[in-house]
Structures are given as C-alpha cells and as structure tokens.
Amino acid sequence: MEWPDEYQKLVNTMMNDPRVVIDNVVCATATVVRVNSARKRGMLLEAVQLLTDLDLTIKKGYISSDGRWFMDVFHVADGCGHKLADPALLSRIERSLGGEAASSSPDDNSYDGDVGGLAGLTALELTGTDRPGLLSEVFAVLRDLECNVVEAKVWTHNGRIASLIFVKDHDSGSPIADAHRVHRIEVRLRNVLRGDHDVRGAKTTVVSPSMTHSDRRLHQLMFADRDYERVSSNGASSSSNALVAVQNWTGRGYSVVSVNCRDRPKLLFDVVCTLTDMEYVVFHGTIGTDADRAYQEFYIRHMDGSPISSEAERQRVIQCLQAGIERRASEGLMLELSMPDRRGLLADVTRTFRENSLSVTRAEITTEAGEARNEFRVTGTDGQLPDRRVINAVIERIGKDHLKLKEERAPPSHQKATAPREEAAEHGGGGVVGLLGLGNLVMRNLYYLGLVRSCS
User: Which residue ranges form the domains of the chain, and what is each CATH number?
Assistant: First the structure.
C-alpha cells in the first residue's frame, strides 16, 4: 500500500511546480507563454526576470494571482519584434519557468541570470552623489590599487549614482580576499564618492559576486539610497515623463496602480522590481503596448493584505515607480568601445570624457577573451546632449577603430494592443486611471488563460 505516498508526491508536484505552456499558433505577432502554479512570494518577478534575462520583449500580458493559485500569460517577442522560432530557446524558457533551473527568491540579492561568468571576482557596490568626472576618479583609484575591472554597470538618476564593479587582482588574476586590502579599497573609494559635499550618502561595500544580479541589485541600491525623493540642482522637484496614478478600490480592498509611459526593453521588469522592493504583492494586472507607448495596470496590496492607507504613501508609490522607470532610461548619446583590454584602460577613456566636458550617465563594462567591450551613455556636464563636434574629437583621440557613436533606432512598432483603456481614462495631471470591475478583470484574465470560453 505505497500508492498513497506516490499519489501525494504527484499532488505536491502538480501543486508546487509551475506548469508552462508555450503557444506559437494562437497569436500572429508574438509567442504566448502561459505559467500556472501555486502562488508563492516573488513568482511574478521571477517569471518576468527570466524572460528579461533572455533579452525578450513582453508586448502584452495578463496577471491573475489570487487565493492560492498563480496564472500569468505573456506575449513575448525577440529583440526585432518577431515570434520565437528557435526550439532551443523555447525549450530553455519552458525549463526555466518550470523550475528546472536553479533559482532563488527574487527578494534576496542572489540571481543566476548573470553571475555565471563572475566566479573568481570581487564585487564592489558603490552609491553616492553623482558629479562630472566621478567615474573617471573611481576607475583611476582602482587602477592605482592594482584592481583590474572585468565587468561593471553604472546607473545615475536624480543626482545619485549606483554602481556594481567586478574586479580581480591585476598581477595574479585572483579575487581580492585580503581583509586589509579590501578595507583600503573601500576607504579610498568612499573618499572619492564623498567628494567635498556628500558627507552622508557615500557607501562602498564588498560583496560576493555569487550574490549579485546586477540590474536587480542596482534597483535595490538606488531605492535604498532614496533616489526617488531627490530634487534637481535648482531646488525644484524633478519632473517625470512617466505617468503614474494610484487609487484605492475600497470595496475590493485593492490599490490600483496605472502606468503610462514610452515603451522600452525591460520596462515591466523595472516596474515589478520596484513594487517588490516596496513589499507590495501584485494580485491582478494587465500589460499592453500601443505603437511606442506602454500601459500597465496592477491591483496590489501590502504583504499583510491591506491596500495603500494614506496620501503620503500614495505619493511615495508614484515617486518610486517613476524613479524605477527613469533609472534605465538615461538621456544622452551612446558610445561603444571595443579594443584590447589593458591596465588603466577605463581610467584613460573616462578621463578623456571628463577632459572634453562629457558626463557618463550610464555604463556597461564587459571583458571577453581579453577584449574590452564597453558602452557609455554620455551627456554634456549641463545634462544636455553633447555637441557632435565634441563627440568627434573624443572619437579621434581614442581611435576611430575603437570608439564609435551608436546610432540608436526607435523601438520596433508593435501591432496595436488593447491597453488598459477599455481600462483607462485620463486623470488629473495626465496620470492613467482605469478602475475596471474586478469581476470583468478576473473573467477576462481567465479567458486569456484558456480557462473559460468567450460567450460572444
């Protein structure tokens, strides 16, 4: 009589392991990915993160996570806006979302999306007040301390900077483990970040690379640094092009968050990261795109089941979501550097930027087989687009064969999707509000999930 144990194992597997269905037939313009499973904390962020790490675009989505069950549908496309045709990629999506790949909770700092190549490195986390030439000073200090930068990501927003820098010892190629040397690195970098003004906010920490997923961690660093409440240099509050509205649906016990902004890659990931960092749970939601606009609507509660309870909290949610959207959408021109890596390369390149009155607003540093492949988004020191003559002079100095101006194209235009506006109406200062009847929302999501049939 062992069948009850086997039966229980089957029930546990069906209840706990996500069921993933990939459909390339039902939609003409996207691959449809359905995920059903028992609801657990962070499941939505985990699914969105996995799709984002594969450089997929989520064009449309339906989220339903109430009671004990989680049901999501994502319409995804590749970077060119096409349906997914690679069988290996489809299999990887199914296995990853199905829980076969090693995973961890999105609420900690450990991710396996981008740490595989970082073993044997030392990770530095930096936050502080941004200023022209700061990145040049940071890389110069690391060069002087015999630290070879292998990978790095830098974000700036609202006068603040956050960076993850992965280094190794220049001579031995080993991680930097000596406690006294680590302390010296932290102190030197903290002094650079502090400068003459930031006596409170500069922070430098050495962490394990195995505990760091860069984009996720940068959001956490910026959020902890409260970049969302900073003001512009003239003392006025920073404005945002992202329209965010929050209303309470008292009868149902939900707070409804609506987002209307320009569409771009990884937008949904950034929004869901922000809601997760603020410890909200998404129970229902819709995601849509229309030309170059994105529309997202989420029905959220606190982890204890309560909605947003005050005007101050409502304003904080709006500010945090606007900041989460803006961090990756830095202004400026993109410069691409490709050349053999050498000691002090980053210090020299960023010093050239500084000497030509260019500020780096975002950077992504990678090293592959001894080749440096780096991207820098730059503005003038006044925050405006730099003069093309300045850009040409910098390219001439560093080398036309190595540094190039990336001509960025507008994102691919998607077929018109039903954005939350059956769902949405213009509100007040332009924010999007779309209080649907909850019954309609749930029934519509169940229809898209294939669990009920249309009556039309």
Answer: 18-103+240-325+421-456 (3.30.70.260), 116-211+330-406 (3.30.70.260)
